[in-house]
Specification:
Helix content is 39%, strand content 14%. The protein has 912 residues and is of the alpha/beta class. Helix 3 (58-76) runs parallel beside helix 4 (125-136), helix 6 (171-194) packs across helix 17 and helix 22 (646-658) runs parallel beside helix 23. It is an enzyme of class 1 (oxidoreductase).
Amino acid sequence: MDKLTYLSNADSSYIDGLYQAYRQDPNSVDFGWQKFFEGFEFGQGAEAVSIDTENVSEHALKEINVLNMIHGYRDRGHLFTHTNPVRERRKYYPGKELETFGLSEADMDTVFNAGIEVGLGPAKLRDIRQLIEDTYCRSIGAEFKYIRNPEKIKWLQGRMEADRNTPSYSAEQKKRILQKLNRAVVFESFLGTKFLGQKRFSLEGAESLIPALDSVMEKGADLGLQEFMIGMAHRGRLNVLANIMGKPYKTILSEFEGKMYKEEDPELKFGGDVKYHLGYSSDITTDKGKHIHLSLAPNPSHLETVDPIVEGMVRSKIDMKYDGDSSKIAPILIHGDAAIAGQGVVYEVTQMSKLDGYKTGGTIHIVINNQVGFTTNYKDARSGTYCTDVAKITSSPVFHVNGDDAEAVVYAINLAVEYRQKYKTDVFIDLLCYRRYGHNEADEPKFTQPLLYKLIEKHANPKEVYAKKLIDEGSIDTSYAKEVEKEFKDYLQSQLDASKAVENLEEEVPMFGGAWKGLRPAKRADIFQTTETKVSDTVFKELAIQITSLPKDKKFFRKISKLFEDRAAMIGKDAYDWAMGELMAYATLLNDGKRVRISGQDVQRGTFSHRHAVLTLEDSEEKYVPLANVKGGDKFSIYNSLLSEYGVLGFEYGYASANPQALTVWEAQFGDFYNGAQIIVDQYLSSAETKWKRSNGLVMMLPHGMEGQGPEHSSGRIERFLELCANDNMIIANCTTPANYFHLLRRQLVRDFRKPLIVFTPKSLLRHPKVVSKQADFTKVNFQEVIDDTAVKAASVKRVLFCSGKIYYDLLEKQQADKRKDVAIVRIEQLYPAPVEQLQAIHKKYNKASEFIWVQEENENMGAWPYYCRTFRKSDIEFTDVISRKESGSPATGYMKQHIAQQETIINKAFE
């Protein structure tokens, strides 16, 4: 028996209509359809239905073939589009010929009821095919059939098929598109002419990005958006700054002239960055009088690094400024084709897009698809068909658009914004274009792409292509196109003339405005000024009781109940452990009206089961958060992150940069793991103040300590952070008491300036009986950069041991066991900025001592020693020796016996 398989479309209105008619009167439909529907309940069948074709008429079978054709175009039409402006697309099989769907030219004038499916009603095959050809195979190719939500599919199909993906714009709208294209094209050619050979990473070949972004602002404002946060790498950045953000042309031209920004205070050590890395913000008014705030985040050459930063900034503003409403602000990420396909952080950020801790209501992704990465051809740049294949992870629609068809580009981006606002998910625009010159303007692309660049040389720019289209259709005349070009060129020349008179550039977007108002840059004198971080005894005790009390009507695991009983007992014993010190820091900050946000792998419980900030009830998935029940507890958020360091650390840095009044914390599962996010540390945490005048108060918690757990669970790489330290750019701390940790965390928000804090936190010390603090340590004193030895008399001391972190307790145990009063142990709690004056005072105090020794458990080429050795050499506080593990290329041994022997050697040698 013959069988014909119909690949059903979940929302097929045609089949549904036939079935409803059949149910009312079986004789109202063709005999073949009667046989088809017998025993089949529509909507309950499988994805593929086998049909007995013995008694089905030929026409009925062809109706199914027409439906298959419509489905085929929707599903694979993007493979057969005219989206590449400079070369032929690759061939894909099977194709879209009529024969592919069991149809032929003889059927073209036959009327098929399947036309209902695309909104035509009963129509000739010729008309049905033309509609879907126009919709899915012209300048826009749409990928969306993998979306698992029938409503979204239906909405996209309805919108695109109704318009045939062919925009209809008024004469004024067309002129606006042309004017934006003109500005984009002329700006680049002007820079290329006036500053020959200077790098600018031009937009040439992809200038349709500018009218696209312009339209995003207009459309977005109509849909309720009040703010856009943009992240992009260097290609086209200057054009976006000038023609979208509104950065004055005179300023950009002055930067090309080599003018520097006025140094407000030489002590701040501003080094600057190349012009195509800088950020900007501005306020614009749309044609309809609506106000939009625009921000372009600064970005290093590490291409996609800015993605998580932007997402974090947007989420921060959603939480802080828009009361959780993501429809008021949207992130726009502009990628290169090679970067979006090749950089792993893109995948991380995409995976974050729907997670509670990181979602921002959907991102508009625009890919400037140059079809080449530096000198790498697209065939060598990815394995997937498209550079945007990462979109499929989140079932996000992708629109592939011909960059030479400016109207199609504007149409697609408007559809993308509408989709984002309606469904709160990501959407991707693959802007197929080309790069007219090499990677930079001094590069010769013909070295590696000779055939491609022969085509590009002869190819008209997007403005010329669009102007010709408008002239041909009678929307403008030739003189109009020439007039707008000359007018803008003359304006740029006037701005260049004005730039020559500029001596020093003035900062147009100061750092300390908006959310940063009231804060200021830090000066050297501020760093060691005592900050009042202590709280009153009454407040401390009240909050301690609140966060250790569990509700009686909820059933918790027995171990959790016992843990909280033990915490409550700490109040009476006046001995608070590490977890209580940390949680009390959060509670007191919340009580002060601040926001606290923590994320990282397993942070709710804590990798070492010490924190338990979120409790899960025994008999359900219900969560209980003790800190949410204190005053201000609604501003406490703590999220277990996806298994990502790079993306999540970048996100939290962005969050902290947009809201300096929040304590934003990222905790590594083990300190060693932060190096998966080394780029964020290097390009943002350590250098942003120097490069971009952008402060940040992010806290990084890195569990650190040599405990015989092997190379990857021992060292947070203190040495790497210290080698990045200069000009008081960061705070590096390794505390030994819960109270000092409490004050360190509170100090982040109590000061009127912000610095990143990298704090090396303990593992075994979390439950060490000696690692406790009294209430007075929280309420009577502030943070101590150095903690001296109170158990010895200075006059009796012959050797002073300086150390930091966990090893202190090993040294203390030996000192007490041997009753050594001639050896003092001094803890340096803040490694950087180095507490020079306090160390000088220590040296002066122990003037009878002949040895001042640095002791660390890390290898000699690691830990704090390399920095302290370099910093204090030939000074009055130079160390006489170092005691540590031997130099090594690996942070720690994997053998417990060897670890114990090494540790004993260090401790014994310290007291020899």
